Amino acid sequence: MTDGVLQGRHVLVVEDEFMLAEDMSQQLVDAGAVVIGPAQSLERAFELMAMPDVLDAAVLDVNLHGKSVYAVADMLLERHVPLVFTTGYDASTLPERFRSTSCYSKPVDMPQLMLTLQTTIEAVLRA
After folding, report:
1. Torsion of CA 35, 41, 42, 46, to 10 degrees
2. Comparing C-alpha atoms, which of 62, 77, 65 is closest to residue 108?
3. Tens-digit pLDDT profile for residues 23-47
4. Parallel, antiparallel, or unpaired for β 63-64 and 67-68?
5. Can you give the pLDDT at residue 42?
6. With pLDDT > 70 as the criterion, what percentage of the chain qualifies?
7. How many distinct helices (H) and strands (E) make up the chain?
8. Is the peptide bond before 52 cis (omega within 30 degrees of 0)?
9. To 10 degrees, the CA torsion angle through 100, 126, 71, 66?
């Protein structure tokens, strides 16, 4: 169903749980995406964002080893890179500035997340 929906799109994955990061990355690759990462820390996320690859979208775990990912999200939004949050917490805990950003509770419905990524990427390209 989701094969190829993200064909050739560069997607940053920021997730601190190794198995979740690997599974998510593989599913994104299966959908045609080029995965950047996964980053398991804020520091690594910033390093990956400094690389010359153009990012088409990002999937960000809200909490990385007790640190919020919001600084990464702010930088991505400044660059007009669409993003999706994942969290083990309630989405209502997101700061007000991110309330319109898609947020998926874990375990993540990957086909739905990938369709959301595709939709948000297409919206940015049309803008």
Report:
1. -40
2. 62
3. 999 999 999 999 999 999 999 999 9
4. antiparallel
5. 96
6. 97
7. 4, 7
8. no
9. 60
Q: Would you give the end-to-end CA distance of the chain in angstroms? A: 27
Cβ neighbourhood burial of 54 (10 Å; 0-12, 13-18, 19+): exposed
Q: Tell me if 87 sits within 8 A of 70, measured CB to CB.
A: no
Tens of pLDDT along 52-105?
A: 778 999 999 999 999 999 999 999 999 999 999 999 988 888 999 998 999 999
Residue with tokens 């999937």, as numbered in its chain: 59
Residues 6 or more apart in contact with residue 94 via CB below 8 angstroms? 62, 85, 101, 103
Tell me the three state secondary structure of residue 27.
Answer: helix
- Residue 12 near residue 55 (C-beta atoms within 8 A): yes
| Assessment of whether the complete model's pTM goes beyond 0.90 | yes
103 touches 85 (CB < 8 A) = yes
